[in-house]
Amino acid sequence: MQLLLLIVAWLGVESARAFKLQLQANVGELFTYKIAPQLFNWTHQVIGEQFRYRPSLQDYPDLPSWMRYMYSHEYHAGFIYGTPPISAAGKSLNFDVVALNRQNYETRQLIISMFVAHKFITPNVVQMKIDNLNWVHLMDPGRVENLRNIFRKDLWPGSKEDLSVVFMESAVNMGGRLPLRPQQREGVIVHVGSFAQFSPRLKELQEEVRPLYKLPSCTYKRTSVQKIFENVGFKLDWCAFKMVGIESPTEVLYHNNHASGRLDEHQKQPHNTEVQHHNENWMAISREDVPMRNYIDEFAFAFAIPGMILAVLLGMLSAVLCFQHHKFSIHMDYPMSSTVQMVQCSDTNPMQPVTTLKSLKDPNFLLDNISMRSQSPNNSLYQLDSGASGIYARPKPPPYKGGTLGRNGVDI
Questions:
Q1: Hey, which residues does 194 pair with through a beta bridge?
Q2: What is the greatest pairwise CA distance in the chain?
Q3: What does the H/E/C string look like for the chain?
Q4: Half-sphere exposure of residue 277, counting CA atoms within 13 Å on the CB side?
Q5: Measured CA angle at 340 (ends 336, 345), to 5 deg
Q6: Chain CA centroid to CA 28, Å
Q7: Is 394 left (phi over 0), alpha (psi -120 to 50) or beta?
Q8: 320-365, pLDDT tens digit by residue?
Q9: Residue 346 contacts residue 368 (beta carbons within 8 Å)
């Protein structure tokens, strides 16, 4: 029984034994570390998802706020990364990493002791987004070196001595959307910084892409330095390419001008303790300096100007309709007024020569024609000839025969 307890205790100690590791990080510089099975002396890997890791700050359930842990199914390993802030400078941090073998449920522990060295934060930073990579791809030192060489050799030669990656995070964790197809990359946000001033070529590139800042994404845009990044496998979203640093960005020139004006005023003031103490106090804006809202102008822009435009459009529409109506009336009256037909009027005697020509528009023509035709005793109907077809009217009434009336009013 005692032997069995000793064996169980030995197995527990063996499975829970801890390995120690010493690391160093710099303030304002990206720190990355890969957690692989080799750190726990596990060399045999049966399945791809055999091992799981759980890192945390020693005696705490989670990591510091500036550090993140993510597991990569592509590399079958875990990664801890982050940028130490100034508040962590000169401190030593201990991390516990517990590893689990899912095949036999064996657990092992790794203790990482990390010292955060003090370093001045780089003032000039270039921010960019790489669309064709995931966050885990920038854990490769060779790919990071290729990105740094683009700036050190071509775009930013002055940063050759101290250029470093100061920030890296997945675009999805920064608020981006997952791609529609799983085969596409999520994208990664990268910041590189240096103490060197921005080169003229970087400033030209900033002015080239500055009109694109109002767009959320513009992968279709090509710039003058597109080939330099594509030759080493980077496709950038130029809407997210920005330069931030000591030199004033183009978006905040107005604020910088006002700040420089205030600085000149302070330099003209006498340097005594009372004035300096007075300048440190925050002065609120007075009520008279608060801009007043002018409702008359707003009503003018909201109603008067649209009303005038509407009136002009209605006038133009009315003029067009009136012109079309007048043109249509003229078109309908024109054939009747312009056409004049002349006919020959003759008596019933065919041997009598034609004496006069009368127009169809003459009101006496119809009566004359009727009177001429009514002289023939053979026609009980009178006919108006117009062209090839005839128009027949009502039959002619019988002639009136006059009689005599008697005394009683009876016709005799």
A1: 124
A2: 169
A3: CHHHHHHHHHHHHHHCCEEEEEEEEECCCCEEEEECHHHHCCCCCCCCCCEEEEEEECCCCCCCCCEEEEEECCCCEEEEEECCCHHHCCCEEEEEEEEEECCCCEEEEEEEEEEEECCCCCCEEEEEEECCCCHHHHHCHHHHHHHHHHHHHHHCHHHCCCCEEEEEEECCCCCCCCCCCCCCCCCEEEEEEECCCCCHHHHHHHHHHHHHCCCCCCCCCCCCCHHHHHCCCCCECHHHCEEECCCCCHHHHHHHHHHHHHHHHHHHCCCCHHHHHHHHCCCCCCCCCCCCCCHHHHHHHHHHHHHHHHHHHHHHHHHHHHHHHHHHHHHHHHHHHHCCCEEEECCCCCCCCCCEEEECCCHHHHHHHHHHHHCCCCCCCCEEEECCEEEECCCCCCCCCCCCECCCCCEC
A4: 3
A5: 135
A6: 33
A7: beta
A8: 888 887 766 665 655 554 444 554 544 445 455 544 555 555 555 5
A9: no
Best CA proximity match to 37, nearest among 75, 69, 77, 97: 77
Bridge partners, residue 57, by sequence: 95
CA 230 to each of CA 143, 157, 220, 227, 390: distance values in angstroms, whole numbers, following the listed order: 13, 19, 14, 5, 92
Lookup: tokens for 230: 């594509």
CA–CA dist 180, 131 (Å, integer): 14
C-beta separation of 241 from 209 below 8 A: yes
Residue with tokens 């090509």: 222
The predicted-structure confidence for 378-397, as pLDDT tens digits, reads as follows 544 445 444 445 555 667 77
CA distance 73 to 81: 17
Judge whether 52 and 35 are in contact, CB under 8 Å.
no
Block residue for tokens 């700036």: 151
Average pLDDT of the chain is 76
The one-letter amino acid code at 404 reads T
In the sheet where 106-117 sits, what is the strand order? 18-26, 106-117, 92-101, 51-57
